[in-house]
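step=encode ok
step=design start
structure_in=
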């Protein structure tokens, strides 16, 4: 007669860890990237590009403003990728 092997859903049996659970910060899931919030934030930033009226500002100032907005959108995406890379 053999000894029974505990089943995974048996109380007291050790659970198999899921991928990424062993990494720091993965337990709380507070720093995970939320695709919907990232899309919303990037859309809002890109909407600012169309929001400025042409001719209201000098070409250099407008170009600098657009570059700043694109840098912000880029930073949002970089942070999201960095968060995903942690998992």
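sequence_out=
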């Amino acid at each position: 007669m053999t000894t029974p092997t505990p089943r995974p859903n048996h109380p007291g049996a050790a659970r198999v860890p899921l991928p990424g659970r062993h990494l720091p910060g993965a337990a709380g899931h507070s720093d995970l990237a939320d695709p919907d919030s990232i899309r919303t934030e990037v859309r809002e930033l890109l909407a600012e590009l169309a929001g400025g009226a042409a001719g209201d500002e000098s070409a250099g100032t407008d170009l600098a403003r657009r570059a700043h907005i694109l840098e912000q959108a880029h930073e949002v995406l970089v942070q999201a990728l960095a968060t995903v890379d942690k998992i």
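step=design ok
step=annotate ok -> The helical segments are 35-51, 59-85.
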